[in-house]
Design goal:
Residues 82-105, 256-270 form the Glucose-methanol-choline oxidoreductase N-terminal domain. The chain has 561 residues and is of the alpha/beta class. The protein has 19 helices and 24 strands. The protein is 32% helix and 21% strand. It binds flavin-adenine dinucleotide (FAD).
């Protein structure tokens, strides 16, 4: 069968595309490497309003994907990327930030014509059904519900952080998706009645799945694209049942910022020399494929909370507050930094006792790469983030550490956030964050010891939770702080920009502003990889906006033909 569209990847962007492009009768094939869960069979950990169980469930991830984080630390870690219908939106923390007008105006100024704020706002409105705000910034009839936990649910810890922010001139702003200045707020969530709503749930309900012109093919990996000269004609796939090819007039890559460039390169589209070295026949020498990789680089400070200041078991989510502020560093824009405030740091008993200020550089300048080590689809691409390689990012993350250390010692917090310590979401914290009985047992034991005496707690924090460094050690020794941030920096699972949009004259760009890959026909990209740079927001809602706008452009062009 010849499809009108093959969509590769059923993640945040792919679900949008499948819905919008199949609405007018076009024949659409959606191919997803991971499992599909129709609305009546969604696993409980995906539905959970508290995302920490789904976060680290290996069943929903690419198991062998690793990444080098920062050049100076030689650290290569498992990098969580979704492999399940709904993609990142099925396992993410459900935070629904948009980023601000300046992000998109800058996108447009770098060659993504039409992607300025006025150009993207209609699509932010179209994707959402905001349950709290009705004004020109918000949509109230889109597929994706966005709601905010009640401020009254804030724990004692989060209320005290709010007081500290107010004293730092970072005031409370009720609507983070409508006010774009420095401030702190309740977190907007892709969440309805305390349950997750993924892109799959929002865009692929039973009514859409029932369309006879839409086929969803789960547990099937796209190996590479097929061509006739420079015209893409379809895809080769691999699954448990064998290798099959499918044909379409247009293939749309929605495989995310790590796997879309990998599929391109396996197919011969990318940096010619590097592909030739691997024995891959070069179809189009597009230097920008896999370059310009960005992520929000961050570290964290955590503290032990007294029982009365912890999150109530009945409260929604686990990130209760989000803040943005301006670093004031030379050459950096306003609201370039972000802090998310976790009223509990993980699902387990230790996590329930720890509050965390997770802070990151929200407008990053460092860039990394995705490259191939083998032409085989069975080998994951090599991911090098090179976080903090741009000195502005390193300096701002260090300043942020000093700022958050001051915040946690604010008078409103000193009797609430006890024994604060530098923390990171890496190594030990990640291993113990996996949802299983052994980790529950271990953390129950550790939690009991932490509660039993303050001196024992301090020793445990110093020697079992951290690597022995205290906040004051890092504040008094810049070299130590520098080493700490470079060795412990981690992203927020927000990879973007490896196939960035731009003009055909720009050698770093891969697609035009409608997602068409330069120099080829029948091929588009419509996921987080096309973003010219990572916006000042968690990336799920911006990605869904990208797919909404791209699908509109495709349908519009089809109408004109
Ligand atoms: C653990 C985690 C937490 C996050 N937290 C947040 C948050 O709270 N808020 C927020 O805004 N953002 C968050 N994000 C980021 C956000 O979810 C992503 O930016 C967004 O999902 C990206 O959408 P995408 O469509 O580009 O890619 P994805 O959603 O990753 O979708 C890509 C899909 O393509 C499939 N695929 C890849 N290669 C192939 C192939 N060869 N063949 C077939 N299928 C393939 C994958 O299996 C996947 O399902 C988080 C992400 C993760 C992983």
């Amino acid at each position: 069968m010849l499809f009108d569209y093959i969509i590769v990847g059923g993640g945040s962007s792919g679900c949008v595309m499948a819905n919008r492009l199949s609405a007018n009768g076009s024949r659409v094939l959606l191919i997803e490497a991971g499992p599909d869960f129709p609305p009546h069979a969604i696993p409980d950990d995906i539905l959970d309003g508290n995302p920490t169980r789904a976060y680290y469930n290996q069943r929903y991830q690419w198991p062998s994907l690793t990444a080098a984080v920062a050049r100076t630390s030689n650290r290569r870690v498992h990098y969580e990327q979704a492999r399940v219908i709904g993609g990142g939106s099925s396992i993410n923390a459900q935070v629904a930030n948009r980023g601000g007008p300046a992000d998109y105006d800058e996108w447009a100024s770098t060659g993504a014509t039409g992607w300025d704020w006025e150009g993207v706002l209609p699509y932010f409105r179209r994707l959402e059904c905001d349950l709290d705000f009705r004004d020109r910034f918000h949509g109230n009839s889109g597929p994706l519900p966005i709601s905010r936990a009640d401020k009254g649910e804030w724990s004692g810890f989060v209320n005290a952080v709010s007081t500290a922010f107010e004293d730092e001139n970072i005031p409370y702003r009720p609507d983070f998706n409508g006010e774009f200045r420095d401030g702190h707020s309740v977190v907007p969530l892709t969440n309805l009645a305390r349950r997750r709503v993924s892109a799959a749930m929002a865009y692929l309900p039973e009514s859409v799945r029932a369309r006879p012109n839409l086929i969803i093919l789960p547990e099937t990996t796209v190996v590479k694209l097929t061509f006739s000269c420079r015209q893409v004609t379809g895809v080769d796939t691999d699954s448990k049942t064998g290798q099959l090819s499918y044909r379409a007039q247009t293939v749309i890559l929605c495989a995310g910022a790590i796997h879309s460039p990998a599929i391109l390169m396996r197919s011969g589209i990318g940096p010619g020399k590097a592909l030739s070295k691997l024995g891959i026949q070069v179809i189009a020498d597009v230097e920008g494929v896999g370059k310009n990789l960005q992520e929000h680089a961050g570290v964290a400070i955590s503290a032990y909370l007294k029982p009365k200041d912890r999150m109530l078991p009945t409260a929604t989510g686990y990130i209760q507050m989000h803040a943005r502020y301006s670093s004031g560093h030379d050459g950096c824009p306003l609201t370039d930094m972000a802090v998310s405030v976790l009223a509990k740091s993980a699902w387990h008993p230790v996590g329930q006792r720890l509050g965390t200020l997770n802070f990151w550089v929200n407008r990053v300048y460092s860039t990394g790469t995705v490259s191939l080590v083998s032409p085989s689809h069975l080998a994951e691409p090599e991911v090098n983030f090179d976080m903090l390689s741009d000195e502005r990012d390193a300096q701002r993350l260090k300043s942020a550490f000093r700022f958050v250390a001051r915040l946690i010692n604010h008078k409103a917090l000193v009797n609430i956030a006890l024994d604060p310590f530098p923390s990171t979401w890496t190594g030990r914290a990640k291993r113990i964050g996996k949802y299983n009985r052994l980790n529950y047992g271990l953390t129950s034991l550790l939690a009991g010891l932490m509660d039993s005496s303050s001196s024992l707690r301090r020793s445990l924090i110093r020697f079992a939770i951290t690597d022995g460094r205290s906040i004051s050690d890092l504040l008094t020794n810049d070299e130590l702080l520098d080493r700490f941030v470079r060795q412990n920096v981690f992203g927020n699972f927000h990879p973007t920009s490896t196939c960035r949009m731009g003009s055909a004259q720009d050698p770093t760009s891969v697609t035009d502003p409608s997602g068409r890959v330069h120099g080829l026909s029948g091929l588009r990209i419509a996921d987080a990889s096309v973003m010219p740079f990572c916006p000042r927001a968690n990336t799920n809602i911006p990605t869904i906006m990208v797919a909404e706008k791209m699908s509109d452009a495709i349908l519009h062009e089809r109408e004109q033909q």
